[in-house]
Amino acid sequence: MGLQFIFLITGLAAGFGLFLAFLNRVLSYMRRKILKTAAAAGILLLFLGIFGGAAWWGGEWGRWLILLTYVVLFIGEFIHRWRTRQLRGAPPVSQSGDAFSLRRPLTTTHLVVSQYNLSLNGASAPTHANPGAIHQEGIKRLRVAHLSDLHLNHHLPHVYYQQVMEQVQRAEPDLILFTGDFITELESIHQLPDLARMLHSRLGMYAIFGNHDHWAGAQQIAETLHQSGIEWIGNGWRRIPLDGWRDILLIGCEEPWSPDAFSPPPAQNGDLILALSHTADHVYRLSQLGATAVFSGHYHAGQFQAPGFGPLFIPSRYGRRFHHGHYRIGNTHLFVSAGIGAAEPPLRLYCPPDVFLVDFYED
Prior knowledge:
This protein has 363 residues and is α/β, with parallel strands linked by helices. The strands form three sheets. A seven-stranded mixed β-sheet has the order 1-2-15-3-4-5-6, with helices on one face. Helix content is 33%, strand content 20%. The protein starts with a helix and ends with a strand.
C-alpha cells in the first residue's frame, strides 16, 4: 500500500507539472478573468484525475505514461534554459536593494533598482554606474525609468509605494514609462494621484493598461491617470521630439485584453522606438517593427520562486523564456520587470519587486 501511495503522489506531481505548462501557454491569454479561473480549475482537476487514475489503477501502462510525462517535462526544461541563455542580454551595471538570503523568503516590499546602460549606433556606453561618465564630451544620454505592475491595493502599505517613488525620483529620469496593472482593486485607484505627484521627468510620463486595469474599469483608471499627469497611450503612439537628437517614438500595445486593435505607427529612419507592452509575448512582432527597446511586466517574475530553479508559473505563450530581466531579440532590447506590487495573493517569495533604469547613450 505504501508503494501505491508513492505512485499516486508521483502521478499527481506529473499531472500538476503538465498543467502548469498548459496554463502558462494557453490559459493565460483568455480575456475574461472569471472564465479563465473556472477553466484553470476544471483543467487542473482533469489533469490530476487522469494522472492520479493512471497511477492508482493503470498498472504498468500508467507507470509508463507517468515516466513519459517526466521525460517530456525534463526535455522541455532543458530547451527552455538553453533558449533563455541564447537570448539573455547584458546584466545590469548596478543594483541597489537587499541581498538575496535563503533565510528571508518574504520579499514583498524588498525593492531592487536595476540600472542598464545601452549604446546606440556604436556609442561607448559606460560599463559601470559612475555618474561622471555621462559628462564625457560628445556623449548624449537619455535615462528611462520603467515601472510596472503597481497593483495598488489595501494589503500593501501606502508608505512602501511612496518609498518606491522617492527612489525613482532620486535617479532623475528623463522619461518615465508605466507598463500597466496600476491596480488590483478599483477602490485603491485613489492612491495614484498622490504617488504620481512625487514623480517628475522633463519628457513626461506615459502609460499603457494591463489586464487588471481592463478587468477593473479602464475608463475610470484613464481619468485618474489624466488627473495624475500620466498620459495614457493605449494601443496608440506618441512622438516626442528631442532637440539635437533623434525623436522618440513611443508605441503602446495592450493586446489581448484591450477591445481596441493594435495599429503600428509610421516610423521614420533614426527614430528611437520605445514600445510598451504589458506582456512580453509581443516582442517578436514589435522587433519586426524596428523597436529599439520593449518594456514589459505582467509576469511578476513568477511572484513565487524556488531558489536555484526560478519561477514555476509565468503567464506567457513562451513559458518562462522571458520571465525577468534583459533580453536581446535581433536588434531589439527587451526589459521585463518583476513589477512593484503583488496580487492574488499580495505576497512575493524569493522574488523581490523592482524598477528598471535604462540609460541610452549615443555619440
